[in-house]
Design goal:
CATH architecture of the largest domain in chain C: 3-Layer(aba) Sandwich
Helix content of chain C: 25-40%
Distance between the termini of chain A: 28 Å
Order of helices and strands of chain A: EHEEEHEEHHHH
Number of domains of chain A: 1
Number of strands of chain C: 16
Largest sheet of chain A: 6 strands, mixed
Structural class of chain A: alpha/beta
Strand order of the largest sheet of chain A: 2-3-1-4-5-6
Number of domains of chain C: 2
Chains: A alpha/beta, B alpha/beta, C alpha/beta
CATH class of the largest domain in chain C: Alpha Beta
Number of helices of chain C: 14
Number of strands of chain A: 6
Structural class of chain C: alpha/beta
CATH superfamily of chain A: Pyruvate-ferredoxin oxidoreductase, PFOR, domain III
Radius of gyration of chain C: 21 Å
Strand content of chain A: 25-35%
Shape of chain C: globular
CATH class of chain A: Alpha Beta
CATH superfamily of the largest domain in chain C: Thiamin diphosphate (ThDP)-binding fold, Pyr/PP domains
Order of helices and strands of chain C: EHEHEHEHEEHEHEHEEHHEEHEEHEHHEH
Oligomer: heterotrimer
CATH topology of the largest domain in chain C: Rossmann fold
CATH topology of chain A: Pyruvate-ferredoxin Oxidoreductase, domain 3
Shape of chain A: globular
Helix content of chain A: 40-55%
Chain lengths: 185, 283, 390
């Protein structure tokens, strides 16, 4: 096991209804399976559809207390608004993952940027945009390694209803594959 | 009607430092207390198994005199407190003593929702048309034009028909009579106790010292006679012309529905449906 | 927070769920509530779990009905809880006063959100600290606890239930929007290991039973409705049997008991946490969610070589006067970060010698950080204050 001290501040952002809080919970559950420290918080408005929504997950093998992400190591942005609002708090050494289905304009950043049309891909390959959250989360996990891939799978299977298990596992597979292609290129 | 002796009534009262009571001369509350106790004695209900819950007001002082599990709660909240008692111990007979202001003004919300749930509470509502304990302010039942200390020029508020309100909200036993009709009061209360579900007995009562004085209604016997004349059986009322109906109140049982599911029974069914077979624990 | 241990019982849990599970572990068997953000999950979980073992859940028509129903059920013998947020708590205060006056155990959870009024339903706040103390009319002491993590939400929920039973009073369990909705790993204890204060029923024959003994022992025994004791309960000033009284001597006994049962048991009720306080020259005094930023700020300042520590009250009320004097009295400066406009700091200043005491103000700087815009106080914000006062 890697003994090096690490702390990753991850923000998953977009709008209400995109399943970001679900993605945050799943990521945090995966971290529990990895037996590291984790805190998951969220911020949302009164709307369940539309409106800004975000989930923060902090993962570390050392003590930490403040529960919200301040300077992000990883930012997932599924909307233009979220991307604009939060990319300024992304560390220079951080990673931005943007869904180009909705994010059209990314300001110049020191951070590494991955741009993929996750929503479109989900629609095309799975026939629904519903698992975009899991697909992009799988991509994030493969790229960043914040949790183990197997823990992510277990966490997803534990969390989703049985009838959606197959679809979400497929989404994970697609997310992982997209990430592998990015890593190679 | 079974005769309940004066002596046996004493078994249901608290004698240690509780008497004389706080009620004014001529007040009907004592008649109602007597009727409640006679009904309980007739039904041979166990004192230990009765919870008597009240709110705030003249009528709500009743529980302290009665030798049951007694709860003198907050203004308007008696039915909500009683709901807690009944939910946790459905086997208890829970009776609520309340007044027109307590139950239909400040406590109106609890009153209609308990009726809607059809939870097995026996609500004895003593309607004296006034806030007596605070000295005579108008209540939701103070008749139009009447005087109260807060309606010095006559009451402009329309009134509640409490029984109709209860029926509309879903109560399954609703009856009204007056304190003059003491035997009927006792009989209705007895039936209300026996009824499984939300039951309301509204008792029109006399408040000669406050309401009566403010409205020149005469002394206690005069007010009693007035109740005798004005609170009439439903059938008799129906025969009257609209002009003759002015100032008349109906008495009788308006609804006695034994079909509707009682709330604590419904909850028990829910509990039973969730019981997991042994060995399949829900950790 | 747990880590690096192979325990199958370590699970991810939300703060509100931890409060519900803690109460259930402590023997909760009746919950009445009314929906309000951000506390609703507590009611939802109770509605799922209670009927599974014969417990009862009811959604009442409002918060006033909710507190009334739990007091009624408690008098009938149940262990009870309700949960709400600021606006609902405001409605409950009359009932909370009744529970304290009639010495009826119950727990009220207040998951604090931004106020006043409807305010910020989905944002955190700590602005009901004083309401937890002074919310009800009349003089009645308060017990209020305030955790700062998910696992502590579980523990303090159990503790709140136990203290309510032991001292026969209404205990307030504070939380806030972030803490209530936050998820963290929690190691659930073996339920057989959870210390529970069970209700002690009287052994005296009914005719000797005093519902309000003059010199009670704690846990204070309590008969329940339907058990043959037929006692009277009233919010009026009452004698030892519960009957109303206007007598000064009987009222004095009652008021003395209400005050002293808390005042004489401060050591049993008060819990604090000291973090890096041993050699600290500067102390942060913080509770609940703000203490998380404070701890982080202590770590950051220590890395810069500044000797800072943190004192955190887990018991907000009764206020830990003695501990504050003992541990904060010699500090050069005290920083109080809180999501309100100075409620804990007001109390701190009272203990530290009075708000207007010039001598104290000269020698001990009390730096207040207030925030009421719906966002958390950040570690950076506290660090900035540390740098200013050092």
């Amino acid at each position: 096991m890697n003994k090096e001290i690490f702390k990753k501040e991850i923000r998953l952002s977009g709008s209400g209804g995109q399943g970001l809080i679900t993605a945050g919970i799943i990521l945090a559950k995966a971290a529990v399976l990895d037996k590291v420290r984790v805190t998951q918080t969220q911020s949302y408005g009164p709307e369940s559809r539309g409106g800004a929504s975000r989930a923060d997950v902090i993962i570390s093998n050392d003590e930490f207390y403040y529960p919200e992400a301040v300077n992000f190591d990883v930012l997932l942005a599924l909307t233009q608004e979220a991307c604009e609002k939060y990319s300024k708090n992304l560390k220079d050494s951080g990673i931005l993952i943007a869904d180009t289905t909705n994010v059209k304009d990314i300001v110049h950043l020191e951070a590494k940027v991955y741009e993929l049309p996750f929503t479109e891909i989900a629609m095309k390959k799975l026939g629904t945009i519903l698992p975009t959250n899991i697909l992009s989360l799988a991509f994030l996990v493969k790229i960043t390694g914040v949790v183990s891939e197997s823990s992510l799978k277990t966490a997803v299977c534990d969390f989703v209803k049985p009838q959606f298990k197959k679809m979400n596992l497929k989404a994970i597979k697609i997310g992982f594959k997209l990430a592998s292609e990015e890593i190679i290129s | 009607m079974q005769k309940i002796s004066q002596k046996s009534i004493h078994k249901y009262l608290r004698h240690d430092k509780k008497f004389p009571h706080v009620w004014c001369p001529g007040c009907s509350n004592g008649i109602v207390l007597g009727a409640v106790i006679r009904a309980i004695a007739e039904l041979d209900l166990k004192k230990d198994n009765i919870a008597m819950v009240s709110g705030i007001g003249c009528s709500s002082r009743m529980p302290v005199y009665a030798d049951f599990n007694t709860l003198h709660s907050l203004h308007g909240r008696a039915i909500a407190y009683a709901t807690g008692v009944k939910m946790y111990k459905p086997e208890m007979d829970v009776v609520v003593i309340t007044g027109d202001g307590d139950a239909t003004a400040i406590g109106g919300n609890h009153f209609i929702h308990a009726a809607r749930r059809n939870i097995d509470l026996t609500v004895i509502l003593i309607n004296n048309y006034i806030y007596g304990m605070t000295g005579g302010q108008y209540s939701p039942t103070t008749p139009h034009g009447d005087k109260a200390t807060t309606t010095p020029y006559g009451n402009i508020d329309p009134t509640f028909d409490i029984c109709k309100l209860a029926i509309g909200a879903g109560a399954t036993f609703v009856a009204r009579t007056s304190a003059y009709h003491a035997v009927e009061t006792q009989s209705f209360i007895k039936q209300a106790f026996k009824h499984k579900g939300f039951s309301l007995v509204e008792i029109i009562s006399a408040c000669p010292v406050i309401y009566g004085r403010l409205n020149k209604k005469g002394d206690a016997p005069t007010m009693m006679k007035q109740m005798k004349d004005d609170v009439i059986p439903i059938k008799q009322y129906e025969k009257l012309s609209p002009e003759q109906r002015v100032n008349k109140q109906t008495r009788g049982i308006f609804i006695n529905d034994t079909e509707k599911m009682e709330y604590t029974l419904a909850y028990q069914e829910l509990i039973d449906s969730l019981k997991v077979p042994k060995g399949d624990s829900n950790e | 927070m747990s880590n690096n241990k192979t325990n199958p019982k370590t699970i991810l849990m939300q703060g509100n769920e931890a409060i519900a599970r803690g109460a259930l572990a402590a023997g909760l068997d009746f919950f009445a509530g009314y929906p309000i953000t951000p506390s609703t999950e507590i009611a939802e979980i109770c509605s799922v779990e209670l009927p599974k073992f014969g417990g009862k859940f009811i959604q009442m028509e409002d918060e006033i009905a909710s507190i009334s129903a739990i007091i009624g059920a408690s008098l009938a013998g149940a262990k009870t809880m309700t949960a709400t947020s600021g606006p609902g708590y405001s409605l409950m205060t009359e009932g909370i006063g009744f529970a304290k006056m009639t010495e009826t155990p119950c727990v009220v959870v207040n998951v604090m959100r931004g106020g006043p009024s409807t305010g910020l339903p989905t944002k955190p706040s700590q602005s009901d600290i004083m309401q937890a103390r002074w919310g009800n009319h009349g003089d009645a002491p308060a017990i209020a606890l305030y955790p700062n993590s998910v696992s502590e939400s579980y523990e303090l929920s159990i503790r709140a239930m136990n203290l309510a039973e032991k001292y026969r009073t209404c205990v307030v369990l504070l939380s806030d929007e972030v803490l209530g909705h936050m998820r963290e790993p929690i190691e659930l204890p073996d339920l057989s290991q959870v210390k529970i204060v069970r209700r002690i029923t009287p052994t005296k024959p009914p005719e000797w039973y005093q519902h309000y003994p003059d010199n009670p022992k704690y846990p204070m025994p309590k008969a329940s409705f339907g058990e043959g004791y037929r006692f009277h309960v009233t919010g009026l000033s009452h004698d030892s049997k519960g009957f109303p009284t206007n007598r000064a001597d009987e009222t004095k006994i009652l008021m003395d008991r209400l005050r002293n049962k808390i005042a004489y048991h401060i050591d049993d009720i008060v819990q604090i946490e000291n973090y890096q306080m041993q050699d600290a020259k500067i102390a942060i005094f913080a509770a609940g969610i703000s203490s998380r930023a404070a701890k982080e700020a202590v770590m950051m300042a220590r890395k810069r070589g500044i000797k800072v520590g943190m004192m955190r009250p887990l018991t907000i009320w009764p206020f830990p006067d003695a501990a504050v004097r003992k541990f904060l009295g010699d500090k050069k400066a005290i920083i109080v970060p809180e999501l309100n406009e100075g409620q804990l700091s007001l109390e701190l200043k009272r203990v530290m010698g009075g708000i207007w005491n010039y001598e104290i103000r000269k020698t001990k700087k009390i730096e207040e950080i207030h925030r009421t815009d719906g966002l958390l106080i950040t570690p950076d914000q506290i660090l900035k204050s540390i740098m200013e006062v050092k």
